[in-house]
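Hi L.,

As promised, Putative Per a allergen:
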Amino acid sequence: MVSLRRSNSHFCGGSIISNDYILTAAHCVIGASPSSVTVVTGTNTLNAGGSSHEVSSITVHSGYSAANSWRNDIALLKLLVPIAFTSLQSAVTLPAQGENAGAGTACIASGWGYTSYPGAGLPNNLQKVSLSVISNADCQASHTGTIFSTSICASAGAGKGVCNGDSGGPLTSNGKQIGIVSWGRPCATGVPDVYTRVSEYITWINQNAV
């Protein structure tokens, strides 16, 4: 879990997938210049610890569309200097292409997003919440925006979910990252949140994280 910063202020999450690439949501970095974003790794707190990394390039999925239910909401950040892996910072395991987590799969979302909405401020300590994968059909029934096959939804009822500031962060299950925080109805209302389904983008990641 990493923190994306502008002028040292957290705005989105991300995850380490190799020593020089960060996986995040396209809507976090669309239109941003690499020099405007820094990545902080190796800490669970926003105000202390960790290492700051400059970004050399940003790759947003060419099919990303905010107007079309944030379709293909995925991006890669290449770091100027590779991360030195330690016990505090290492790469997350990704699923195989097409290795989809089914409804009922236990999962965990993490991030520094608001813990209440409207939020009075971001929490200093990294938060996590236990959720379950919801079928795309059930998820679609709760949303007017389109739930694509490249989306995955998760919920645990009212009071549990992701919020502003969590975007781009990981949804994990059994140590693998199955989702990227994308969009939802703010916040933790009991309506499933929508994530980018990572297993549908492994080929894209492998083609672009080079």
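The mean pLDDT is 97.

Thanks again for sending the construct details.

K.
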